[in-house]
Amino acid sequence: MQHKLLLIAILVGVLNSVVLHSDEPNEDDYYKIREIPIPASAFLEVGGLEFMDDGQLAVSSRRGDIYTIAGATADDPSNAQFTLYAAGLHEVLGLANRDGKLYATQRGEVTRLIDEDKDGRADRFETVADRWGINGDYHEYAFGSRFDKDGFLWVVLCLTGSGAAADNSPFRGWCMRVSEDGDCIATCSGIRSPGGIGMNAKGDMFYTDNQGPWNGTCGLKHLRPGSFQGNPTGNKYYSLTDEIGAKPKDPNSGSRIMTETSNVLELEPTSILFPYTKMGQSASGIACDMSNGKFGPFSEQLFVCDQTQSTVMRVFLEEVNGHYQGACFPFKSGFGSGNVAILISDDGQMFVGGTNRGWGSTGRKPYALERLDWAGKVPFEIHEMRAKPDGFELSFTQPVDKESASQLDSYNLTTYTYIYQASYGSPEVDHTTPTIKSATVADDGKSVRLVVDGLKIGHVHELHAAGIRPEGSGQQLLHSVGYYTLNYVPK
User: Fold this and answer.
1) 347: which residues sit within 8 A by CB, 6+ positions away?
2) What's the sign of the alpha-carbon dihedral 353, 356, 359, 362?
3) Which domains does the chain have, with CATH numbers?
4) Quick check: 159 and 165 in contact, CB under 8 A?
5) How do strand 218-222 and strand 175-179 relate by DSSP bridges?
6) Structure confidence by residue, pLDDT tens digits, 322-337
7) How far is residue 60's CA from residue 77's CA, in Å, rounded to a whole number?
8) Each residue of 441-461: pLDDT tens digit?
9) Quick one: DSSP state of residue 321?
10) Is the dihedral of CA 65, 70, 74, 78 positive or negative?
11) How many CB atoms lie within 10 A of CB 118?
């Protein structure tokens, strides 16, 4: 009898576990990954994504091929048709369409591809700009954007070698702007190892840089023209141009970024620090949701890939004291390979592609091309996290339960930063635990004002809000953590 009761208790526990689990929010309930099958003949280590004038999706490979895909946007993309548009290029990590011509950013140049006879294959290849150098080092990646509102695409250039660059490949560690007429303008210095580049809703350009020398962790950085992005290795190339002014002072190794902004006036602090492992390990492609709600409730926010963890993160940015900063949140995991390139269509479809060659990834496939579709249901999420002079304001995708949202024990806040140093990466340092003094819920329940004692300039403010529930439901937040990089406190 005791054995039967024990068995019944175990079964009841299992059933309760299943029921409880089914009530928990799940990413797949709101955003579903759809695989776009890749033909066996196409080694599609995705590096770039763009739409052609006829609506087909252009996809570039690290192996130098470009394919156009018909049916990638169809309700069922499993029957998508691939056509080889171009081959023989050198690791294409950026595509841009302008006036029916496709611009490919490859290691040594930006190339214009033209299909003159309209047979679906490029016939003419033109060098648009090749001002920077390469010497064959594995690390000499070049990532290219789409065209901006002024008619330039932007190229961010990895340093030669993962650490110090001992060679003289011109402009490695710089950002260049390239016009369709071939103008190539030095724009920013101080870059280490980009993983992607893209614009926000206003058209300002950002790139992701990866953990390494002078980068304590991965980050999203604003390419403000004339700025120094933090790594002085490539600053020797100031001798080649006066387009962005004089060479900045070298930063002090072992300091902190916000401390060094007073010492190196050209230094643009990292807009978003992605806490290492917590939010990924290899930040890569960037896309802005300009679909006006067709992709869900995050219009005009940025989405950033991580190659190692095969994820997409979500970023809310704001301007404070003339600089961008903001918060990052988990968004979607479970992609098939290491995410590199990302693109969101005007119709609200997110395309993600990548590879695991060279670094490995959580997604076990050697390469993949996938589409993320919104299921039409709004997840309960922290929508925005804004800095205030005395704390933060959280907004939500749904009204909150006012009782749970006003309780201080619904929140947990810690801070930390990273050492700004010439050696590789940094642990979290300078930890503090600010005090949340009050949590005031707005009348409409859509926002909460947190008054905080102990804000720390230059620190990531890691906020957990696991105790908050939506109005009329006991459901948890889909993602209950946000990481705000507080470089400046609003006046």
Assistant:
1) 73, 291, 294
2) positive
3) 28-374 (2.120.10.30), 383-486 (2.60.40.1220)
4) yes
5) unpaired
6) 999 999 999 999 999 9
7) 18
8) 999 999 999 999 999 999 999
9) T
10) negative
11) 8
